[in-house]
Design a protein that fits this description.
Blueprint (H helix, E strand, L loop, with lengths): L5 H20 L6 H11 L2 H6 L2 H5 L5 H9 L4 H15 L2 E4 L7 H4 L7 E6 L7 E7 L5 H17 L3 E5 L5 H11 L4 E4 L13 H10 L1 E4 L9 H13 L3 E6 L5 H11 L3 E4 L10 H8 L4 E2 L3 H7 L21 H11 L4 E2 H8 L3 H13 L3 E4 L3 E4 L2
Parallel strand pairs: 3-4, 3-7, 4-5, 5-6, 7-8, 8-9
Antiparallel strand pairs: 1-2, 2-6, 10-12, 11-12
Helix pairs in contact: 1-6, 8-9, 11-12
Length: 382
């Protein structure tokens, strides 16, 4: 007589299904789209490993080579068992794309992972998810933009969750800023949960898991190889409502994230930069090609998303180019067109007398937007 309760049977079935899904995801050449196709044709992930090669070959996209690979990879079931044991031992989570708990935004994407692994306590279906991404070689300007954007987003949209890739530069700046302002942040990584890359961000990642999460589609023993970073960018794009590129060269991972977001019909935004600045060239190009909308503030993003800001908070509504007077904005604009200018050159370009210009320059320097070099030469910070 079977005395196993219905709840226990259901749990056993879920674990069994997960076992076969994990094993399926480990087969080289079987990506998320083909994996879903196989399951749709055969009715269950388990059936993939019990079907004959002859029948597998008939499934569109499989053919002789991949069917042989599937037939010869039943040993992956042991690897899947090890993965499940690792997840349970460490208190991690594994979500199948068929689960209700799987991020619903990501589920909409045809190439979403069949299994998603997380370390953290966040519900990936609650809140408004905003990806903030950019160059690893972030400037002072980009860092200020990123920090101000997130600070104001948290003030106006209390349920915002900041998503990025835990890389150097813009990514880690976004995560740190979210932590500073006590809002959950999610890092999508390009390796398994048995390691963290870069290792320098381990302490930050540990803090993130308290209210946010570390997310990946990769199993243990997966190295952070270059192709994996390209793949993980689509997850960042797919699980978010909006993507903001704060600073990027003309080529970079954040632009791939923006491209994926456009394919998924997500809202893409970019912060404009100085003409000729290589680390803003990517953002300017996204805007020029209408691949991203130009924003200068959190308020711009919120308005574009038709979100209702929290009026009870005393939001600063700060411009990312900072809350400057018209004259100060003009000075910044002129200086952004040049590497640096001597004060006499500035007076000529601005048509302002020195006695009026000098106090403005001192104020901008005090605010941290300008740097005075020897010989009264001024340069924009960042």
């Amino acid at each position: 007589m079977d005395i196993t309760s219905s709840a226990e049977k259901k749990k056993i079935t879920v674990i069994s299904d997960m076992r076969y899904l994990i094993a399926l995801s480990m087969i080289k050449g079987i990506g998320p789209i083909l994996a879903r196709n196989l399951i749709a044709y055969l009715g269950a992930a388990e059936a993939v490993f019990t079907e004959t090669q002859q029948n597998l070959e008939k499934i569109p996209g499989i053919g002789g080579v991949l069917s042989q690979a599937i037939i010869g990879k039943t040993d992956l079931l042991k690897s899947a068992d090890n993965e499940l044991e690792f997840i349970a031992k460490n208190g991690f989570n594994a979500f199948a794309y068929t689960d209700k708990t799987y991020p619903f935004r990501l589920k909409e994407c045809s190439d979403a992972p069949v299994v998603l692994y997380t370390n953290g306590n966040i519900d990936l279906n609650k809140g408004r998810f905003v990806a903030v991404v950019g160059t690893r070689n972030i400037t002072d300007y980009g860092r200020n933009v990123c920090e101000t954007l997130i600070e104001d987003l948290v003030l106006q949209i209390p349920d915002v969750i900041i998503v990025s890739g835990l890389a150097y530069g813009a990514d880690i700046t976004a995560h740190k800023s979210a932590l500073k302002h006590n809002t959950p942040t999610v890092g999508v990584v390009a390796h398994g949960l048995d390691r963290l890359y870069p290792a320098a961000h381990t302490s930050i990642a540990s803090k993130m898991t308290a209210s946010g999460a570390i997310v990946t589609e990769y199993t243990t023993n997966t190295e952070p190889d270059k192709p994996n970073f390209v793949q993980r960018n689509r997850i960042i794009a797919g699980m978010c409502d909006a993507i903001v590129v704060v600073e990027s060269a003309i080529r970079g991972g954040s632009l791939l994230t923006a491209d994926a977001a456009n394919l998924y019909n997500r809202e893409v935004f970019a912060i404009p930069g100085r003409v000729g600045d290589t680390r803003s060239a990517g953002c300017n190009d996204l805007i020029r090609q209408n691949k991203a909308a130009l924003i200068e503030s959190a308020s711009d993003l919120i308005k574009a998303m038709s979100w209702q800001p929290n009026e009870s908070k005393n939001s600063k509504q700060t411009l990312l180019f900072n809350d400057l007077s018209e004259e100060e904005q003009t000075i910044i604009s002129v200086l952004r067109q040049h590497e640096s200018l001597q004060i006499n050159q500035l007076t000529l370009k601005l048509k302002l007398p020195v006695e009026k210009l000098f106090p403005l320059l001192i104020e901008l320097e005090f605010k941290g937007h300008l740097r005075c070099l020897p010989g009264n030469v001024y340069k924009v910070v960042g």
